[in-house]
Amino acid sequence: xxxxxxxxxxxxxxxxxxxxxxxxxxxxxxxxxxxxxxxxxxxxxxxxxxxxxxxxxxxxxxxxxxxxxxxxxxxxxxxxxxxxxxxxxxxxxxxxxxxxxxxxxxxxxxxxxxxxxxxxxxxxxxxxxxxxxxxxxxxxxxxxxxxxxxxxxxxxxxxxxxxxxxxxxxxxxxxxxxxxxxxxxxxxxxxxxxxxxxxxxxxxxxxxxxxxxxxxxxxxxxxxxxxxxxxxxxxxxxxxxxxxxxxxxxxxxxxxxxxxxxxxxxxxxxxxxxxxxxxxxxxxxxxxxxxxxxxxxxxxxxxxxxxxxxxxxxxxxxxxxxxxxxxxxxxxxxxxxxxxxxxxxxxxxxxxxxxxxxxxxxxxxxxxxxxxxxxxxxxxxxxxxx
Length: 386
What we know:
This protein is an alpha/beta fold and 386 residues long. It is 43% helix and 14% strand. Helix 2 (37-60) crosses helix 3 (79-94), helix 3 (79-94) runs parallel beside helix 4 and helix 11 packs antiparallel against helix 13. The protein is globular. Residues 255-268 have low confidence and may be disordered. Residues 2-180 form the Tubulin/FtsZ GTPase domain. Acts as a positive regulator of hedgehog signaling and regulates ciliary function. Belongs to the tubulin family. It comes from Erinaceus europaeus.
């Protein structure tokens, strides 16, 4: 379980002079999970549950008021996915009144691990039962941002992590609690989930940022709130993961017209219908920004009023190197196609019984796979019918 990576993380943090992990605030083992979700969940989980939960308890005891847990994990391998799902379940059991948000790294579509689709469906189905919200980052999208917006030629894990960290920071750095207030928000995790997850069937969240660019490009760029928000809105409705390549032809449907959201998955889901959106603005003249475009009822599902479906957080403090910047956290149909693809690929392998024996020998039976398929197909259907 990644002793080399954890040791690198500890030493890098200590060298930075900005952050230092506690001497006993980590857990690792020499043996991994061999990219097998069942091994991480059924072997490592029960074996190390007490040690891991004792570490968690020590951190919890330092809190004046515990709002929840933010769990960062991957889906493709065995430890992050299997052990991550087990730990989330343990947190649900032991801290049932606290919120749990899982940030999950969606695997590359081309494949990192041959059984990544099995690992992904098992992870997602378990988290759907034990987590309050899933904040999804797609590796393919982060990779494209590095290549096309940041102009990085040889993309490393560090570059991808920088993009993910930027997106998380743009959401969770402090913002003011209410319009005109100078008191900072005390419970961003709870506020985020209250705004964006109105129903337990819909808990998939995605993040988009604008602007994102290299230092050399930034020197020649100027931004207005009108321009940034116009692009961000179009990124939302056309389901673009970044500013480059936005489809400007996609427009909201007017009442009386059939909605593409209710079409089958075989037809392209052009318009990205939302359940709820949160826009976070940071920088100069932030109170002059006009957010009317995000309050349009045509952007949202019919069963939620835009007054309840849209929220905004603001602060005049600039983020990173950008004089003005905006982040959008959205609960929408953005993940329907990637999720359907993963479920489809996993089902094709399952139908031919490929690699199933690797899972059954560690206690994950065929019925567990079938339960996962059923749950996720229901999630896909629910999002499609918005």
